[in-house]
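Thought: the user wants the 3D structure for the chain below. I'll pass the sequence to the structure tool as-is, report back what it returns, then summarize two notable features.
Action: structure_tool
Action Input:
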Amino acid sequence: MTVIRCTLCWSLWGFMLIWTNSQAVILSDLNTVKILVKDTSVSSRQVALSQALGAVLVKMSGNSKITTLPMIHNMQLKANRFVQSYTYLSHDVLDDSGSLALQVSFDKKELKHILRQSQQSIWSSDRPLTLLWIDVEDGSDHQVLSSTTDSPLIEILQKTADVRGVPILFPAMDLQDWSLTDFSVDKEGTYSAVNYQLLQKMLTRYNAVVLLAGYLERVDTNRWQGQWLLWLEGAPYRWHSQPDEMDEVLSQAINNTVNLMVNQYTVVSSNNLKKKVLLAVSQVNDLSHYAKVLAKLRHLVPVAKVTLEDIKGSNILLDLEVIGGTQALVQALSTQSCFLPALAAPSHCSNDSDRCADLYYRWNLTSAMEDHL
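Observation:
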């Protein structure tokens, strides 16, 4: 079992695959959500409607922080204006511990109008089907989470995916799946041979557009750490989960996955106007780092053009043409671990004008070395 325990997760690191027979799932209920309530009073309902509108806008836009925008916050206070229907559900039809929930459906047309007004992205109802291959080892036992696994871990992953509006599935882990993950391990514990045909058969079997692979191991009684690989649109994205509670590790993995998807699949609702954004990036120590910064930025969906404005030591100032403006760029950069938000600095101003940067970031070399474009 040791040979197989993380076969897919680790063998995909650094290898290029071709996805075929991929499939998107049309989600018809993005405008509907359930919110737990204390009772059926008007005051409880108004609070729940506000929360429900925020939850639906998160799913429709892909932006998990959309409710922090002042305009969206104001709309939440008027949530009842956008309600199509609502009903109360008893605990008999709920999986949560609450005794009562309010199920709300909002007017999709009105919500899209809100997103356009606030210059937020709109993610279509065609969502990429994501295969989760997650190997969990707690020291005494290990398992790959499957479609037949009876585990609270499945519930955590599914609940987070539902909140973000992404369809997921788990492998059956039958004899065919085990036969499709037969790889060899050398003395250093790395995979010396990868059978691309077997990998392709498994991906084709599940018609998945996206693959999230993870290896989780217990650090102590209640702490876990994980290694993750997301295969998205022909590129691998990797990250490491620091020791934390299991539910946080799993939720973070889904949220990271969706944030990266958003950068690939959403359409910025700003009438497709290109806006200038001056981006300052510090700790760019040599030309090779500079080249990587430019390459990363040019791969971001909203970025139409990147021009060097100024260089001062390890600080660079870049003039970007961005579809959707500053907010679209911030959202795209949030998916890239090699760009970390930084404080403003006097050196981040142009020599040729009084204009200073709109955004300030720090280049994270460690993460950049691990990532592949």
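Final Answer: Structure generated. The chain has three domains: 7-20+127-267, 32-122, 274-370. Residues 7-20+127-267 form a domain with the Double Stranded RNA Binding Domain fold (CATH 3.30.160.100).
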